[in-house]
TrEMBL record:
Gene3D superfamilies: Tetracycline Repressor, domain 2. Residues 32-51 bind DNA. Keywords: DNA-binding. This is AcrR family transcriptional regulator. GO terms for molecular function: DNA binding. Residues 9-69 form the HTH tetR-type domain. PROSITE patterns: HTH_TETR_2. PANTHER family: ACREF/ENVCD OPERON REPRESSOR-RELATED, TRANSCRIPTIONAL REGULATOR, TETR FAMILY. It holds the Pfam family TetR_N.
Length: 199
């Protein structure tokens, strides 16, 4: 990549970052291209040249965020950390630098933009679920997950934990490490507090 292309990509990333910060703080409808340009320190013309419109910029921001989340989740799954710690990361949604804010923001824009909703659904079906199935298979291979439990049940179980985190039912898991440990224990052993023989 030559110097011109690097500068162009840096500008595009600055625009995406500025747009995300403003969109997630004030809502997409209340943010103008002029405000994004001012924060990114570029001209409005530059934004239109690179992205075409505010809607296309938003879709590009979401696409990049989803791909970044996928990379971070993949790194967590393929790392050498013990399987229970991987599950802890997925329950707390701390597989990388992307926080729950991104999940909340994605949900809000999905409800307003059918194209983003379709993008997120395709991403979940074709990329995220296969990655989670890879994690589940690792757990089964390492003896942490009983082979009689279906992948569908485990995916639903992980989803329930993550959704519960956003419901306001749980305290801030980052502030309450003991609660997170207890949730991981519940994840593996349920309320019995020990492995249950299903054979």
């Amino acid at each position: 990549m030559d110097g011109f292309q690097r500068r162009k990509e840096t500008k595009k990333e600055n625009i995406r970052q500025a747009a995300f910060e403003l969109f997630s703080t004030y809502g997409v409808q209340k943010v103008s291209i002029a405000e994004i340009a001012a924060r990114a320190k570029v001209s409005q013309v530059t934004i239109y040249n690179y992205f075409g419109s505010k809607d296309e910029l938003l879709r590009n921001v979401m696409s990049v965020l989803l791909e970044k989340r996928l990379r971070e989740d993949t790194e967590a799954i393929e790392s050498n950390i013990p399987f229970p710690e991987k599950i802890e990361r997925f329950i707390s949604e701390k597989t990388g630098e992307l926080s729950a804010l991104h999940s909340d923001f994605l949900k809000s824009v999905m409800s307003e933009d059918p194209a983003i909703r379709q993008m997120a659904e395709d991403f979940t079906k074709n990329k995220f679920i296969p990655l989670m199935l890879k994690l589940i298979e690792k757990g089964k291979d390492e003896g942490y997950i009983h082979h009689t439990i279906s992948n569908e049940a485990i995916l639903l179980y992980i989803h329930m934990f993550r959704e519960g985190k956003h419901s306001g039912t749980f305290l801030d898991l980052e502030q309450n490490k003991q609660l997170l440990k207890e949730l991981v224990t519940l994840f593996f052993y349920g309320i019995l507090g020990k492995p249950f023989d299903r054979s």
